[in-house]
Amino acid sequence: AKLHTGIGGLDLARQGLYYFVDSIAVDPLTLVTIVLTCLIIVVGGDLRQRMLPAGIVLNLIYVMRIGGCFMSGRYFAVPLLASVVLILMLAENKVKPRWRPVLIGLLVVASLGRFGIYLTRSEASEGPDDPRGIIDEKAFYYQYTGLLNASLGDNWPAHRWANEGRAARRQTVAYGPGLVSKGSVGMFGYFAGPDLHIVDIHALNDPLLARLPTAKEQQWRIGHFDRYLPHGYLETIDTDRNVLADSNLATFYDHLKPLVRGDIFDLQRWIDIWNVNIGKYDSLIAEYARPITRVSYGSINVPVKQGIYWNAPGNIVLAYAGLSIEFDALRSAPQLEVSVDNNDVYRLEFYRQSQLIGQTDFIPSVLAKGGMQVLTVDIPQDAASSGFDIIKVLPVEGDDYYSIGHLRLLVDKE
After folding, report:
1. pLDDT at residue number 254
2. pTM above 0.70, yes or no
3. Per the count of CB atoms within 10 A, which of 22, 25, 208, 382 is most buried?
């Protein structure tokens, strides 16, 4: 879920660096303790003790690589705990017994550095929003879940996700087990109960979606990477029968499913665990993992003839991440003309300064001889009136042979 996002490594590393800077700004004690401990152990520890700082450093590199998290300081909790344990291990051998209580007292006092984290007031709120998506999550939820706000009623916590979960539980009690796809599944899932199967579009608990790229390369928040649901995936989960439309993805799922649902000691399960981790089946999802293609509007606005072969020279074969058509200035038009392979479903998404402002799906009719079909599509009113600088073309479902020949605005206005 964190590594197979399709987002560039440099973008994630830049976000990860900001995560470190944020921690230094709001809680400098954590990283200072981690760094000083590693240096002290490297200089004064034995070989066995030096292995732990190596693990801490590797963990910090991983945090940087995945871009950190939206929860300020969250991913530094384990390295901090390991650092404190290391200090105590070193103190056992290096510090005289009479000074050990003093050292422990200093550690306790240091851990109380910001009393606010223990004495949060009942009216605490989320505070200012960070442009990179890192906030004080405790403050965000405290007004709903904080102990000082607790009540003995059935509707506590009074958060909308909890209320949605309670409503879902009433549905499963009345009508039996169910299936939904949703993001932010923690509080919702807890109150919905065990009879509702939730497919997490953020892929934090979904083994297949976690290996597919994000659906929002232009507009993402760290830690929350939405995925498109492959055609047939919900039906596959609901019926426990593999009906994924993409044959390669279906084969990959057949190898992946035993890892999470198979008998623990089944030999084939352990073979698949090994093969999945060494990447033996990665080629089966390579098309899904292929990053989005970017082109300028000027390179794709020349019309093509209806009926030409779907992958004729000049056409762009679409990966599942789709095509991003980028304009050199804001444009506006009521309609556009597009040529795509017939008999598939496509989606157009319109962006203004990386913000999604409208989308529409369209279905070309089936041509007797196949090939490309030219259509006129209405642009969503919000996008047409405010203007856009990016149009994304995405395959939604079909025969897994997707392509676009051209796209041009009708009555184009800058």
Report:
1. 93
2. no
3. 208
